[in-house]
Design brief:
Catalytic activity: iminosuccinate + dihydroxyacetone phosphate = quinolinate + phosphate + 2 H2O + H(+)
Family: Belongs to the quinolinate synthase family. Type 1 subfamily.
Number of domains: 3
Pathway: Cofactor biosynthesis; NAD(+) biosynthesis; quinolinate from iminoaspartate: step 1/1
Number of helices: 17
Strand order of the largest sheet: 2-1-3-4
Largest sheet: 4 strands, parallel
Strand content: 5-15%
Helix content: 40-55%
CATH architecture of the largest domain: 3-Layer(aba) Sandwich
CATH topology of the largest domain: Rossmann fold
GO biological process, one term: 'de novo' NAD+ biosynthetic process from L-aspartate
Pfam family, one: NadA
Distance between the termini: 23 Å
Order of helices and strands: HHEHEHEHEHHEHEHEHEHEHEHEHEHHH
Shape: globular
Radius of gyration: 20 Å
CATH class of the largest domain: Alpha Beta
């Protein structure tokens, strides 16, 4: 495993807002009356603009509810990509981070794609600049290039495959079975998890997610001792010491499914706390506990919530629909190249879905979730 670069989350290239600025730009929570007004306005604007709201599990619960109520989508990044591509709406409003908006535009170049805040980015994207990544690929021409969804359009354009955490393990396993060596970027924890599960020859870019990288194995073990009846649900962007303690490792969607299907009343959850809204809706009566991100007297940069996801709010969502600004643009030449690895993933997922289904047996399903991988 090569160390490519040490990523600091403090505006590494000066191109977009860093952690501190992101937290400073998180919208204030509106009053109950203002919230009702904004929701009514957004519903009307979605109809007027022939638009649909596509939201990630990590954004504010109010946005998730609004997407569900208006016929939109709340999902992981794989399903967001499919939904936006297949929906008839002329305008897609993506509540998430910038790479999600770019992916929507790549798959739907004739649609207008808007975002509440174009500066909502991702530490994985920031830590994998296209020029440095392209040079890394050029230095290893014998390897199949597989990139995670959390990358820019320009990085995707340099790849052979794009994957999300819900399909990455299967795709790498398939490539490994064909004797291919992998160049993986950008998340080192997810890459290491897939490498361990598949035995594939993988060269890993050394990026990490600000949120998941802060989960601590020692503190999680202490918390497990406090709640010995709890099942531990972990996203594989987390460090290896955290993944090792998991009862289930999976993508956001897979973790929600596990919370519903597993015969436990209490869960410790090691992923962005935005997911707890959907978990509580899907599994009422069950208790969900946030996994620790720092030890005693320590500080955290994210405290289990992505600051860039938190930049999405009702007010800036309404504003972007009203004014039509914050539109995502992708260079057509880059978009065409980036679409190839995305389409490969979507085609693989469509075929794979027919082969792998939950059995209804909780023990078997737990194994399925653990081995399927991570969004």
């Amino acid at each position: 495993m090569e160390a490519i670069r040490s990523v600091e989350y403090d505006r590494p290239q000066g191109l977009t807002c860093g952690v501190g600025e992101a937290w400073a730009r998180v919208p204030d929570a509106p009053s109950a009356e203002r919230k009702r007004e904004l929701k009514e306005r957004i519903r009307a604007l979605l109809k007027r603009e022939e638009a649909v709201l596509v939201a990630h599990y990590y954004v504010d619960a109010e946005l998730q509810e609004l997407a569900d109520e208006t016929g939109g989508c709340v999902a992981d990044s794989l399903e967001m990509a499919r939904f936006g591509r297949d929906h008839a709406a002329k305008t897609l409003v993506v509540a998430g981070v910038r790479f999600m908006g770019e992916t929507a535009k790549i798959l739907s170049p004739d649609k207008r794609v808007l975002m509440p805040d174009l500066d909502a980015t991702c530490s994985l994207d920031l830590g994998c600049p296209a020029d440095e990544f392209s040079a890394f690929c050029d230095a290893h021409p014998d390897r199949t290039v597989v990139v995670y969804a959390n990358t820019s359009a320009a990085v995707k354009a340099r790849a052979d495959w794009m994957v999300t955490s819900s399909i990455g393990l299967e795709i790498v396993a398939d490539l490994h079975a064909r004797g291919e060596k992998i160049l993986w970027a950008p998340d080192r924890h997810l890459g290491g998890y897939i490498q361990k599960k598949t035995g594939a020859d993988m060269l890993l870019w050394q990026g990490s997610c600000l949120v998941h990288d802060e989960f601590k194995g020692i503190e999680l073990d202490l918390l497990r001792n406090e709640y010995p009846d709890a099942k531990i649900l972990v996203h594989p962007e987390s460090p290896e010491a955290v993944v090792a303690l998991a009862d289930v490792v999976g993508s956001t969607t897979q973790l929600i499914d596990a919370a519903v299907k597993l015969d436990a009343k209490r869960f410790i959850v090691a992923t962005d706390l935005g997911i707890l809204h959907k978990m509580r809706l899907a599994a009422p009566g069950k208790t969900f506990i946030e996994a620790p991100t720092a030890g005693n007297s320590a500080t955290c940069k994210s405290c289990a919530h992505c600051p860039w996801m938190a930049m999405n709010g009702l007010a800036n969502l309404a504003d972007v629909l009203e004014r039509g600004h914050n539109e995502i643009h992708v260079d057509p030449a880059i978009g065409l190249r980036a679409r190839l690895p995305i389409d490969r993933m979507l085609d693989f997922a469509a075929r794979h879905k027919k082969r792998v289904q939950a059995s209804g047996d909780l023990a078997k399903d737990a194994t399925l979730f653990t081995n399927v991988g991570a969004a």
